[in-house]
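Hi, here's the filled form for the chain we discussed.

Project: internal
Contact: R.S.
Residues: 201
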Amino acid sequence: MSTKIILPLLAAMLSVACVLTGCQSPKARSPSGSSASTRNNGYSLLHQLLDEQKDVSILRFIKREHSDVKNLIKEIAANSATGAKLLEEFARHDPSIKLDDIRLPPGEASTRDSIASTKQKELLSQTGDEFELTLLLTQTEALSYAWHLAKVTGENEPQPERARALAGVSEDMENLYHEVFVMLLSKTKSSATNSIRTQPD
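And the returned structure, exactly as it came back:
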């Protein structure tokens, strides 16, 4: 895979604050006012994040990770792809759901771009333990954001079945966050131990 293809994919993947269930046409009340605005903004940000996260496992084509890290990253990508498709199904059945209502302030958008650029350079230049630690750290950030985005969006979704599905997405992201955190902690301790062992007497 060429660098020209990899770089845009990594940029999209790291632009973070950087399951599939049947759905029906809404029968409950439609959101209005600030609730509707919060809901659509939440749907849009969550879909953007999940759509980016589904490509995170592409790193396996250019970097070598330990099998435990690789398997967890593949699980994150699969769950993200499922979540993105779920939101697309919601929008297909209910035209009031907008997935392009991002509305980030210019300063926030520029900051995210800067974070994405920095993380992209780090991941492309790192190898071994350093690469794995950086990758896992980016995932704690992304998963925490997805977890809370799904929670807030669900709280502003008046359709009960969709609200429950969003709660399920939130729970999935929370569980993955804790898995990544535990692995990150383990890798950090292991890296520190190896560093001490290799220091000259």
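Let me know if anything looks off before we file it.
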